[in-house]
Specification:
The protein is α+β, with helices and mostly antiparallel strands. A hairpin with a 4-residue loop joins strand 1 and strand 2. 31% of the residues lie in helices and 24% in strands. The longest helix has 21 residues. It contains 13 helices and 15 strands.
Length: 379
């Protein structure tokens, strides 16, 4: 797929056609010369295709929805080897299903994406000691609960609870060139151990984000609505769960939690653009992820089992508090999580209908390895 690397910006129509084999760094750097960007990945080395087909969370999502919602057209090779376009004007059912449908319907060769005049921003990384974790959870709740939340403000909080030398990290960005905007006021009083926030381009801001340099990795996701008591319970679980010792016992074993605040505007933006298959609830919520990294394959089962047990504790806490959300974010999910099953029965039924129409022989269900397949489709 790496040969599908063409990019073609159409300034007159505010769109860009992007080859499915590109990485986000190449896309953003190509568009920077025009002072525009797209709703895309937050980590520059991530591939375009996988992120979009899994939903795609962006620093622009409060403004414009998910990455999949900002696709104007999918160029797709179908199971019968024909090339089709899926958009609001053509193959609308396939257009809907591809937005969260992973590799179940065809091979995407190009995406046409909406562009937006965002270039200079204020943002960067603030780091904290793990002792500040309760205060960070409290500030996150205050930030999320603002009834007039500024859609130009976006952030993600991580905490490396197995590595106190890294501590907690706040990736924050304001999508205008305004220094220390009021939107992030809940966090300003918390003492930091480091601060790289400044005026810079959005691409420069994202280039400063960290990815652990370990050869083995996994993710596991859940979702919930924020509340004081639930955040207090999670803050306790992620620093005191006995399973953390299992992860630390593996060579290089490292765990980081991630809190990603999602505004109700994300679902509304998707609905306004033709909808998607994700089954999102129109409510403020948190997409939570545990990121794991370790050194070699001998630790795979131990790390995965321990992580599942930690996420189960968090799920039980959310259910007990009445704050659990069914949706699982595919881009953060582990290989054995039933991601598409969490889109809801009706959406799964509609996706099977699309599959029957465009891939009646279940080529992509049965012959294409990897990814999350439609439940109940055989294969």
């Amino acid at each position: 797929m790496s040969k599908f690397n063409k990019i073609d910006y159409d300034a007159a129509n505010n769109v860009v056609q992007v080859g499915a084999g590109m990485r986000w760094a190449d896309v953003y750097q190509s568009l920077d010369r025009y002072n525009v960007t797209v709703v895309g990945g937050r980590v520059l080395d991530v591939g375009v295709g996988g992120l979009i087909l899994g939903g795609g969370l962006s620093y622009l999502s409060d403004l414009h929805g998910l990455a999949c919602d900002n696709v104007v057209n999918f160029e797709v090779v179908l199971a019968n080897a024909s090339i089709a376009n899926a958009s609001l004007e053509s193959n609308q059912d396939l257009f809907w299903a591809l937005k969260g449908g992973a590799n179940n319907f065809g091979i995407i060769t190009a995406f046409t994406l909406s562009t937006y005049p965002i270039h200079q921003v204020w943002g960067g990384i603030k780091t904290y000691s793990l002792q500040q974790l309760p205060a960070l959870f409290s500030s996150m709740l205050e930030y999320q609960s603002n009834p007039k939340k500024d859609p130009y403000a976006n952030l993600m909080m991580q905490a490396f609870t197995t590595n106190a030398s890294i501590g907690a990290v706040l990736n924050m960005v304001y999508l205008k060139p305004e220094i220390s905007p009021p939107a992030f006021a809940p966090f300003y009083s918390i003492p930091t151990t480091g601060d790289t926030t400044k005026l810079q381009t959005l691409t420069q801001m994202m280039s400063g984000q960290r990815v652990p340099p370990l050869p083995r990795s996994d993710w596991i996701a859940t979702s919930f609505k924020p509340s004081v008591s639930l955040y207090q319970k999670i803050a306790s679980i992620v620093v005191s769960a006995s399973e953390l010792n299992d992860i630390k016992s593996v060579t290089g074993g490292s765990l980081a939690l991630g809190l990603q605040p999602i505004s109700s505007s994300v679902e509304r933006a998707g609905s306004a653009r033709g909808g998607n298959a994700l089954g999102l609830e129109s409510a403020n919520q948190t997409w939570f992820v545990l990121d794991l990294a370790w050194w070699d394959a001998s630790g795979d089962e131990k790390v995965h089992t321990a992580t599942k047990m930690i996420i189960d504790k968090i799920d039980r806490a959310a259910i007990d508090e009445g704050e659990h959300v069914e949706y699982l974010f595919m881009n953060d999910a582990s290989y054995d999580q039933d991601v598409i099953g969490h889109y809801g029965l009706e959406n799964v039924r509609k996706m099977r209908e699309v599959q029957e129409k465009y891939d009646p022989g279940l080529v992509f269900q049965r012959l294409v390895p990897g990814g999350w397949k439609l439940p109940g489709s055989g294969g």
